Amino acid sequence: MEYQFETNSVENVTAKSLVLFVDQFEKVSNHRLRDIDKASNGSVTALFDSGEFSGKINETATILKPIGYNCDRIILVGLGERKNRTADSFRKAAGTVSRDIGLNASSRVAFCMEKTADKTFFQAAIEGFLLGRFKINKYKSKSKEKEKIKKLLFVTDKARIKKNMTAAVERGIIIAEGQNGVRDLSSAPSNFLTPRDLANKAAALAKEYKFSCKIMDEKEIAREKMGALLSVAKGSDEPPRFIVLHYKGAAAKVKHIVLVGKGVTFDTGGISIKASLNMHEMKGDMTGSAVVLMSLVTAARLKLPLNIVVLIPSTENMPSAKATKPGDICTSRKGLTIENINTDAEGRLILADALDYANKFKPQAVIDVATLTGATLFSLGYEGAPIFGNNPNLMNKIKKASARTSERVWEFPIWQEYRDAMKSSIADLRNSGSRDAGTCKAAAFLEYFIGDYNWAHIDIAYVDIEINGRPYIPKGATGIGMRMLVDMLINWKK
Ligand code: BES
Ligand code: MN
Ligand code: ZN
Q: What is the pLDDT of residues 144-153, one digit of tens each?
């Protein structure tokens, strides 16, 4: 699919399918709709009168063979009420359109962005379109679907807007490709994505997008005294990896932002084994690592003027004769000893060593992203991610990015009682308290391992998967978190 940008008016655009974003309307009063109505023998009025279409969010209607237009069809897609219109209205509308049968059979598609000058709307439209079309075919023996769209045109009616529109769409393409990259990794089965595979993937991306990559194997991990990570890896025949990625987009004196991602390529629970129902979903327990990896790739592609480090502790969590057993005690990189009450609470162990390793970079901020606790299902469910942190300024950066990208987060507390719950009677800490407030207690555990830096923790359990399908989030891995982090990085200095 190629992209093309032009200044033109709707009736002069040449394409097979023409997409028009329309505000919800009371009657056919908009001049553009009136023109189409006339050219199609009153079909817009008929659609409106029948109640089939009035521009409600995600509604679509197709007008075939409109007279006086250089296209086979005009696809109207609703943005909802004008007063509620945001970038996400465009993301949703374009996501809906992205699966339109007629559009998908067209070799040349035009998005008519008439009367819109807002850069965020252009960006959101292409994001929604590319995110909505995401599909995984590579595990099918015969992937039948072939891309029919050869050209995607973005059309504005005002010459002075074209430059902004082009830049915004190009940014949106890079960001959507990043999120689709997260989905790809997140959906990869554990036999296709082991810790070594993940490391190789990171190394390949580092080469392609020109950032540096250091991969530590089990020996180097031992030399770093990452006893918590090693205690999780013990049960597996697949060796762990610790991945360090470094993007230098600013002068050396600019302090680093460190992003940490949980990279458990499969979580059986270990000896504290999980129930078999839905266990297959635990192939996605490395989604935090995919989010931070693709955030870095995207930051590099956008040439952001920042210094960013990504840390990924990666391992499987397996039961075996060699596995860590409940009650076992390990010593973390920081020196704190941890009693392993429940081997299924493995994510916090591997993050503990990574959060301590982050001190090496004297970071200005550290953000970790992890599918950490199943308990998120009972707090925010699939609708948003709990966030924690120790610095209001950093939390605000995240919240603002969240609002702009419509990837929802909500701040939760770390109260003293949660910290106390993570103390062990025999070691310094235990990896599991009681089940209540599980998400907060996991965050409280992590907090013991942070250094003297601004820190935020994002628990993406359950927002990483979509059950029903939404306009621009097909069923399966969502890749949520990456657009928000990238938006935060883009706006870092503001
Ligand atoms: N990877 C899971 C959390 C998870 C569960 C993510 C379901 C997505 C969907 C994590 O390693 C885990 O097992 N956490 C335990 C912790 C408990 C044993 C303290 C949990 O949440 O049950
Ligand atoms: Mn687990
Ligand atoms: Zn896990």
A: 778 899 999 9
